[in-house]
Amino acid sequence: MVYKAVIFDIGGVVLRSPFIAIAAYERKLGLPVNYLNCSMCVLANIVVTDSHDLAIAIPKLPQTLKVDGRELFGSMMREAHQYDPYVREAILRIRACGKFKVIALTNNFAKVNVPEEEREFLGWSDQGAVPDELKSLFDDFCDSSSLGMRKPEKRFYMLACERSEIKPSEAIFLDDIGL
């Protein structure tokens, strides 16, 4: 097998995971581990099956809770704005060797005009959630909010390969969440 590209997820791989901030928020409120993740899955109508491969245990969920969405989202964005130094160094070394394309494939949200004080609160530059410095690490940056598809849609992965003129079998994909 000859590999031609390495495809990186962003959140939880290149940048720290927003799940770290969610876990900290749960601890702050004295909630069971994974309470908020499970609640968000239920709210998003994500069906969780009885699988031995399921990585998180589903806690008994209280009926009511007051969550400050701004505070939670802000802490998630600030946490997810920090590079994993080892992965960043690996990307730089892969690019320096010149043998592989380096591609980003990430779920993101639409870019909107965010007031300056909110950008500061979220830890964003005036460039928003995806600063040019992050984009510059990659030969191609496949962002769900601009391409109109999301992981785990097969078409999203295929488009990343097509844009870089590689076959899926010629790429290694690094993600923090198994599918």
From TrEMBL:
SUPFAM superfamilies: HAD-like. InterPro entries: ACAD10-like (IPR052898), HAD-like_sf (IPR036412), HAD_sf (IPR023214), PGP-like_dom2 (IPR023198). Pfam families: Hydrolase. This is Uncharacterized protein. The lineage of its organism: Eukaryota, Fungi, Dikarya, Basidiomycota, Agaricomycotina.
